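In response to reviewer comment 3 from the previous cycle, which asked for concrete evidence that the modeling workflow produces usable outputs, we include below a single protein chain processed end to end. The sequence was submitted unchanged, and the resulting structure tokens are shown without manual editing.
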Amino acid sequence: MTASESIKLSALTGKIQQALSNVFGDETYWVVADVTNHSFYAQKGYHYFDLVEKDTSSSAIVAKVSAVAWGNGAIRIREFEYVTGQQFRNDIHVLVKVAVSYHQVHGLQITLLDIDTSFTIGMLEQQKQQTLQRLLTECSDFIRKVGDRYITRNSQLSFGAVIQKIAVITSGNSAGFQDFRHTLDYNRFGYKFQVDTYFTVVQGETKAELVQQRLIDVYMSGVPYDAVVIIRGGGAQTDFLLFDTFLLGRAVAKFPIPVITGIGHQKNETITDMMAHSPTKTPTKAAELIIAHNKSFEDAVSGLQQTILIKAQQLFSEHYKALSALNAAVINQSRTVLQHHREILHGYHSLVSHGSRSVLQQHQHALLNLSSGILSRPRIVMAAKQNELQHLVANIRSFNRLYTQNKRGQLAHYDTLFKLMSPVNILKRGFAIVYAGDKIINSALPVNPGSPITVRLHDASLEATVTAKTPHDGTGTDL
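The workflow returned the following structure tokens.
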């Protein structure tokens, strides 16, 4: 081949450009593909990425082409992100409108002109509806559907009168959790709360098991929580796929403690929201719901207090009127009774006055008679007693002489008797006194043969020794 037969590269690329322009020209195509290798240049608002098609059975890439979005394409991507809440990024499945072009320097280019938001939303919604149907089928004992509402075991639980002990499942660096705590801690009613945190990853469809495990940890803690709050900040649509999983939906539906969700998704309701007791849009709304629940209890108590005060005032007013009427009746009746008894007492007073005069006069006459008797009676008594005393004196004098003579005779008799009974006279009549040692004995019992004794006669004392002891009955001295 000679040099004259060759062409320049620019000529070749020009032919390619012309050929592709002739084939594709102003044609556009709606293409279903996955996004990979995405990069975004914020200063210019350009998106660079690859569109790929994967084999449904092996996930192997069967087609791949580079793509770019700028101008109207970039604007359509921003609209897509706003409507779906889904960030345009890697690994999302999209339906995009593209145009095919060829540049002599940059080569083959696929330019994104439009993106179908309903396709992406429909894909997610289809998966969501399949999951909901599975929950109704496999968990019919604690999940049922009434109209457009899902009735679960958790949604049928009742909050306590107040919510104070709260378990929070959230990520450790969640700004939503900080908003939740700030709303609770600085509530204008001054309510106090016990908040226990159970940190975990709350992003990514594959992390549902971690959130379920934290629910199990809450239950196994044994703490009597009033509510469990699941918190996550805002994010893209696919960031919330965790909360559309069968595993987490089932766990929340049958959880024995009321679950409040504050996932932070403003547009759509997740399956976890549908299964929970009280779904809210944001963590702040979840905190406000708790505060509002406690405030309703306080308002009910305040209302009851006000009702009691009103009823008490009404009862007091009614009873005050009744007491006032009763007081007036008592006063009037008392006056009547007092007047009646005053008249009776006046009659008794007159009767007592007249009766007293009569009784006093009677007793006065009696006292005068008694006084006369008392004055005359002592003279009679004194005269009688004087006669008795004179008679008694005469008798005393007479009997005194006789008494003295009689006593003198008795004394002479006793004097003679004492002289006869004197030991000296007794010893002179032949009696003796026997001593054993220095003691007088009147019985032979303490004396034994051989014992010394002293025998006292009226004129001498004899010292002797007992040679024999002969008992007798004491009749030898009988006269």
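The mean pLDDT is 85. We consider this sufficient to address the reviewer's concern, and the full set will be provided in the supplementary archive.
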